[in-house]
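I am writing to request your help with a piece of structural work I have in hand. A protein sequence and the structure tokens that stand for its backbone fold form the material at issue. Please examine both parts with care and let me know of anything in them that strikes you as inconsistent. The record follows directly beneath this note.
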Amino acid sequence: MGVSLSELVPAKQIEFEDLQGKTIAIDAYNVLYQFLTTIRDRFTGEPLRDSKGRITSHLSGLFYRTAKLIENGMEIVYVFDGEPPEFKKETVEQRSETRKEAKIKWKEALERGDTEAVRRYSQAAARLTDEMVAESKRLLNYMGVPWLQAPSEGEAQVAYLVRKGKVWSGGSQDWDSLLFGAPRLVRNLTISGRRKLPGKEKYIIVKPEIVELDKVLSSLGINHDQLITLGILVGTDYNPGGIKGIGPKTALKIVKEKTSPEKAFKDIEWGFKIKPEEIFDFFKNPPVQETDIEKKDFQPEKLLEMLCEEHSFSHERINSVVEKLREGKEKEKQSRLGRFLG
């Protein structure tokens, strides 16, 4: 879920063409949850399944979106979450309970024929399993797309990769990578270019947008420590919901008036077990690792076998995308060669 900074953060709308030749590190869990929640039957809320009843929404979304990004000339790296910090375990447990409750409400909504409630509760019940994560990694291997295993939070590792210049930008719908110090974030890396409005049968057009940390700080008139403090006041994965009565604008006012984290945290009513200073320190110094991004070989035969033979995907559709993927891989190779020669 992450911190919510949409109200405050300036973002520049761009086109996919602007990202050609760029390497984007994507928070894998972020997108896999997107696919599990959105790729569902609109009436029953059921996720996509293969002929054996196994969920394949995550594989479908990951395959088609990644292929589209490569086709558009981008180089993609996925970063998977590792072990969460100890103080996040309470949040993880709460989310597990929320999913269980949502599953019950989903069934009740089905019985009374409430389509909107079915959609809402089925999405809230979505669960990413270890098996799904392993399948996703195998799929990426066959697609020739590199992935990394973070020691802890994926977005912290993404931010580290951007800071070190190993990738051009992070890619996520969440803002957390900015709090972890990522100089650049790309949002809305979707295929359809549209998003459904909550509770309505209406869609809006969305385009990729870029958020640059230095411009965010300049626009808000604060430093990075103050941005982290602002995020904590509003609410993060480690203190969900933030401080009662404090929204983004109020939080911005507080961090400007009380210039240090210690001063900002001193007079608030903190209702969480973990101290705000601990969360602040984690954003400043998260567990990350120095690692190289290893190129992988594209394995179209293995890809077809996995998706079509194992998971009942359409041969015709997968073959069509595989051919485009070949073209995209060639573009990627030429782009790297051009940068080397240039």
Summary: Residues 221-285 form a domain with the DNA polymerase; domain 1 fold (CATH 1.10.150.20). The chain has two domains: 1-214, 221-285. The two ends are 41 Å apart (CA to CA). The CA atoms of residues 11 and 211 lie 5 Å apart.
